[in-house]
Design brief:
0% strand, 57% helix, single chain, 69 residues
Amino acid sequence: MSFLKKFRSYQSETTQFLTELKRQNSNLEESQRQGRALLWDKPPVDLDTQRRIQESELPQPPYVYQSLP
């Protein structure tokens, strides 16, 4: 137990860097959320559209680079 108490206040260099970065740039987390929303948070695709996309895909021929004329 004394070992845990001794190192409880330890912070790695990475943690210290991130803490300092967040302190200097107060809007950093908000800009990260906006970037995530831009790239990852997409509206769900309805099932009919998803089915039509799957049906319109063509199967990939085997050995794509060897079947060239």
